[in-house]
Structure formats: C-alpha cells, structure tokens
Amino acid sequence: xxxxxxxxxxxxxxDTRRASxxxxxxxxxHAYLQGDLESVKAAMAMFHEAPGAVCDCGVPARVLRExxxxxxxxxxxxxxxxEAASPxxxxxxxxxxALLVMEPVAKDLAAAYADRxxxxxxxxx
Length: 125
Prior knowledge:
Elements: H1 2-18, H2 28-32, H3 37-49, H4 51-54, H5 59-85, H6 93-111
Helix pairs in contact: 1-5, 1-6, 5-6
C-alpha cells in the first residue's frame, strides 16, 4: 500500500508540473501562440509568471485544485494507514476498518493514472 501512495504522489507531482501547459481549446493562450517565435516565447514566459494574465480558460487552475485535493486525500490515507500498521495497534477493530476503507480509496485515485508507467495490475479497483 505504501508503494501505491508513493506512486500516486509522483503522478500528482507530474500533474502539478504540467498544469500550466494544459488549456481548453478555446483558451486565449492559443491566440497568443499564433505569432512569430519571439511573440510565442514572450507569451509563454508571461503565462508562466502570471497564468491569469494570458489564460482565462481555468484549466490550469482546476488541475492544480484537483491535485491539491488528491494530495489531501493521500495525506489522510497515509496517516490512517500508518496508524493501522503501527505495531502498537492490532490490525483489528478501528484499524482494520481503516485499512478496509482506505485501500479502495487509494486504488480509485490511482485508476485515473492507469495508463502511466509504473501502474500495477493489483492496484485496479
């Protein structure tokens, strides 16, 4: 389970890095990218420094909100799983219930990335 949570964290890191390059087809950034090479470079530099200055499609911001939400879910899973796996707890009662509930949640989050390298068949929901 720890491998799954770590792998998911890596996928979220990749999504965060790529967020600024993801846009709806009708996004204004595409209009800026139709010019000469210098105009395109200037538009991209401006976009990376202040995404709202060029882009108003909302896709990069939504991707960042989604990755933040998934990180919060993973953080909760990590705490619960760590507590459940602690030698101080018997994996029964509440700790066992936490594992039964949290493992499918992590698998559901991972399913969105099933096409990426490193995804394991045993992680399928």
